[in-house]
Amino acid sequence: MSQIADNIQSVRQELPENVTLVAVSKFKPAEDIMEAYRAGQRIFGENRPQELKWKAESLPKDIQWHLIGHLQKNKIKMAVPYAALIHSVDTADLLMEIEKYCAREERTADVLIEIHIASEESKHGFTREEVLELLPRLELHHVRIRGVMGMASFTGDETLIRSEFALLNSVYEEVSRMDLPFLSDFGIRSFGMTNDYRIAVEMGSNMVRIGTKIFGPRDTRL
Predict the structure, then answer these.
(1) pLDDT in tens, 89-142
(2) How far apart are the C-alpha atoms of 172 and 204, rounded to whole Å?
(3) From 81, 128, 146, 204, which residue has the greatest number of CB atoms within 10 Å?
(4) How far apart are CA 114 and CA 138, in angstroms?
(5) Selection from 193, 188, 175, 109 nearest residue 147 by Cα
């Protein structure tokens, strides 16, 4: 068994059955992804629409690709046809552009609303107030909002991480009480990465995005 397969098995043993593992394969070559695939992994996360498109066209068709990185509006047409789930819808403009694209193409996109929970300003996402004000005003016919996503601060301060995940959970609960047609399949809480997924799972995450612990440190030159 390869090291990648060993790593996947180790992570899976820690995750409850209701938690979906997204193997973050950004910047990783096809050979590494295929090692994970042969170990049974079928859900992979990519940051860049161009890389997602290339891998989706080149690798086995039963792989489910998630776009987990920041999405620019001019890259929507490169992402939507290949992404089973877009994790990173972080503005109202982006959400409506996805709706317009899907209406033209007669298709439906599944997305998560990214919530800004971290102390770092560099992180993207809606504030709690923005989400609660925006959603009731929307008319979406080609986009399904499946849940929320957030990234905690990159820190060793467990108290801070827990408080940020608690904020995400609070937003999730408030949105889940809204009776809106595009929220009919709302149920995903995507938070937790290599450095904090154990805390995330303990706090109710049902989708974790793990890269380094599976594939090792990424090489951004690729």
Answers:
(1) 999 999 999 999 999 999 999 999 999 999 876 668 999 999 999 999 999 999
(2) 11
(3) 146
(4) 16
(5) 188
pLDDT digits (tens, 9 = 90+) for 40-96: 999 999 999 999 999 999 999 999 999 999 999 999 999 999 999 999 999 999 999
Q: How many whole angstroms separate alpha carbon 39 and alpha carbon 164?
A: 33
Q: Which amino acid is at 130?
A: E
Number of neighbouring beta carbons within 10 Å of residue 87: 27
Return the closest-CA partner of residue 168 out of 131, 143, 133: 131
Measured between alpha carbons, how far is 118 from 196 in angstroms, rounded to an integer?
13
**pTM passes above 0.85:** yes
Cα–Cα nearest to 200, from 8, 3, 5, 11? 11
Distance (Å, whole) CA 39 – CA 1 = 9
d(CA 35, CA 18): 24
Q: Are 160 and 120 in contact (CB under 8 A)?
A: no
Tokens of 189: 């809480």
Name residues whose C-beta falls within 8 Å of residue 168's C-beta, 6 or more positions apart in sequence: 115, 117, 148, 150, 189, 191
Structure letter (DSSP) for residue 126: B
